[in-house]
Structure formats: C-alpha cells, structure tokens
What does this fold into?
Amino acid sequence: MLQINFIRENPEEVINRLKTKNFEASVLVDQIIGIDEKRRLSQTKLDDSLAEANKIAKSFGQLFKEGKREEAELLKVRTAELKIISKELSDELDASVLEMNRLLVQLPNLPHHSVPAGRSAADNENIFSEGRIPELGDFAVPHWDLIKKYNIIDFDLGNKVTGAGFPFYRGKGARLQRALINFFLDEGINAGYTEYQPPLVVNEASAYGTGQLPDKEAQMYAVPLDGFYLIPTAEVPITNIYRDVILKEDEFPIKNVAYSNCFRREAGAWGADVRGLNRLHQFDKVEIVQIRKPEDSYQALEEMRDYVTSLLRKLELPFRILRLCGGDMSFTSALTYDFEVFSGAQKRWLEVSSVSNFESFQANRMKLRYKDKTGKAIIAHTLNGSALALPRIVAALLENNQTENGINIPKALVPYTGFEVID
RNA sequence: GGAGAGUUGGCAGAGUGGUCUAUUGCGGCGGUCUUGAAAACCGUUGACCUGCAAGGGUCCGGGGGUUCGAAUCCCUCACUCUCCGCCA
It folds into this structure.
C-alpha cells in the first residue's frame, strides 16, 4: 500500500506512473485525498473533545476537596455530552480510516522508472539469454510421458487420494525433489542467506500483510474453522516475521531463505498448456526474501538476480531473463525480473522464478520499519524471489536431459541425488 | 481436551479506581573524569494520529463494557506458563 502522505503530496505523479501499469488512478486518488481530509478533520475534532473531557475529569478531585459539589455535578452533565460527541466523532473517524484503507489497498504499487510500458507478456523485455536450446532426437517426449515411462511421478495416484494437481513423487522422482530442495537451500546458505522453516498455514493478518488479502483470497486454500490460510508461497510467513517490527540499523541486510510446500487453488487457470508439472495445486519452492534500507534495495535486487542466474547455470539449463512490462507486473511489485527455462520437448519457455522489489509497498502495509541514526522510523524495503520453484525445473531437467536410455542428472546435483541417471 | 496462573516500554519488573505526565533496575545513547578504557557520576532514552509550529490526542495482549475518571473493576477473544489427560 502506498503511503498516504506521498499520495497527498504527489497525486499527479501517482496517476502518471500508474499509467505504465495500465491503471487509471485519477478517480481513486481523488477519493483517497477526499477521505483523508475528512479523516484528519474528524481526528482533530475528536482530540479537542477528548482533551476537554480529560480536563474535566482531572478537576474533579480538586472540586470535591474544596466542597464544590454542585459545580462538580454540573461538569458531570458536560462530560456526558462530551462522551456522546466523542463517540460520534470516533465512529466517524473509524469509518473514514476504514474507507481510506479500503481505497488504499486498491491502488497498485508504482512501477520503477525502468519498467517498460506494455499490455501483456508479449511486451516483456528480454534482457538476457544464456545456454543452448537443446536439439533433441526423435525419441524425445514431454515430461508427462517421461514420468510415466520411468514411474517417478504419479498423477493418477494423486487424483485418487486428493484430486487434480496433487501428484505423488516416487522413487528417484522423490529423491530428485529432495535433492533439488537441499541443493537450493545449501546454495542460499552459501550466498549468505539464513535458512528458515516456516509454518505452512498463516493467520488472516499475515495474509493481509503480504497482500494476498483482500484481493487474492480465491487463490488460497482456507481453513475457515481456525481462520487460517495455506500459504501460496513461503514469502508470506517469511516476510510476516517482520510485521509490526522496528529494526535496528545494524540488523541490515536481512537475507532469508526458506523451503516450503506451496498451495494454490489456481481457480480458472487451467488450460491446454498446463499439462503435467507445468501447473500444480501443491508444489515445492525455495524462496529468498530480503529486507533492505531503501537506498540499498535496487542493488539487492540485482544481487538476487545474479544469484538466481548462478543456480540455473549450475543446473545447466538454458534460460532467459525478462524485465516485466507494466501490464504483466504484479499489483505489489515495483520492478520484477522473470526467469524462464527452455523445456526442450514441449519446446516452450517455462517461468521458474520471479524476483521483485516491492520497495515500501508491502512494508508500509505491514508497518515494517527501521530506525535511522537520528532515531527516525523509516519504512524498509522488501524483496523476494523464487530460488527456485521445483516442478518446472524438474520438467525442463527431464525433457532436456533425456536420452534413449535414461535421463541424465546435471553434475551439480549428483552429490545430492546419489545417482547420475534416471532409468 | 480439563484445571489454574499470567500478558505492563528494547529487557526485567512495580503499580489493583483519581498529580500515572507509568516507580525502579538493566541495556542503549550523550557527557564529565581518564593517555585510552573500565568504574563512578550527571543527563537522556517508545510507538501512532493530528498540527507550519506551539500544542493536543491515542496506546499497559486484541475487542467490548462499567464509571465524572480504568493499567487497575466486568465480559470476551488470542497467546504464554504450570499441572493433568492424549499423542509423533
């Protein structure tokens, strides 16, 4: 959520910059500024009313001591009046705050100046490519055939036990999963990240803190009896560690890495190109999260981009990096790099990571701040990225490394899998 | 799941209806002293809203209530601890 002070002082800039995200903000901005004025007026009037009541309450003891009983009784009447007035003003204030927040959460984050304009994924800017597009033999088949051939991932079993999109991993398939998780976590630790194991369900306040609520409620599985949500990504619990926190300057930089299962309802997102591992309701992901001072956050974003690049190199997968255009960026992001690997048998690029700087957008909503040297509380910047999401990595590894006799495991992974070939 | 006890500032911990503008200690920061440091001593030390400022207001786990007045009394929810039960 954008800061109200910034909107109040720079309404034109907000409106103009959101045009890059194809978001017409002028009506919303006007409404927000209007309700903000109303809110501040209510606050001032309420303060006056409370101040008078406090003053009267304090003079009471004195009046009784001096035996001025009648005068005290008179003040009681005034206090009763003030109480009613305060209640009205307080309700008015609450309503304004509620309405202001309802409007504020509808306003997307401002895109960074480098974000290209554009409508859809077709307008994303390809800023880097590496690796050779594999030329597979005639024997090559997509991963959904390979997993059956080698009996390593079983969708039918998942259908039986749970439902579509919840596969079982079996034998070397399960070990490959475990190997990737450990590999990604170890790499993260070596890069200076602290490993966390987060809860897989979170409360409503956390879902709100990272922006899943109120807008993306349909994306999450819910546990209504307990008021919990299954996490769609480790970003939610890991970033919410810092909800309502005021950090000290020497705690920076904060760099966390966490493996978690991720649960996504993906309502209405199913189609022809989401076969096999391309889209699941439950999948595994290792996530990196950084909390930085505003002046360091873009350097941190580049650092995260380089880090994800290093992972894909070690896995020997052909990949490209896209700078997302305004139209394809998420609501909360200021700048996002997507990583796509080429999956040889499907002959298509698969998104395996999304690295974003949210600037102060999440932190403002979560009240995540730090104190600078002068003791002033400043809103921190949050960043996160996948490093990496497993299913599509697995899909590309299986497809690109297939031979007639089996699937070769990249060298960097062999110490983790304990085998070199799936056959 | 049952019974009981708790939740106060960065931490510890007092306060059980009215100068609480929350005692005190530790820690932090600044200073004096010192070649330097420690010790000692002195000072300072939260967040939020509003306001150009002066100032005003709110916050003692969350929410609600009683009262002229609530950290203090009542209701409710969450969490923590102890004991019992169950259990990987």
Observations:
- The longest strand of chain A covers residues 348-359.
- Chain A has 13 helices and 18 strands.
- Residues 39-40, 43-44, 46-51, 53-54, 56-58, 60-61, 72-73, 75-80, 83, 93, 246, 248, 367, 375, 377 of chain A lie near RNA strand B (CB under 10 Å from a C1').
- Residues 26-65 of chain A form the longest helix (40 residues).
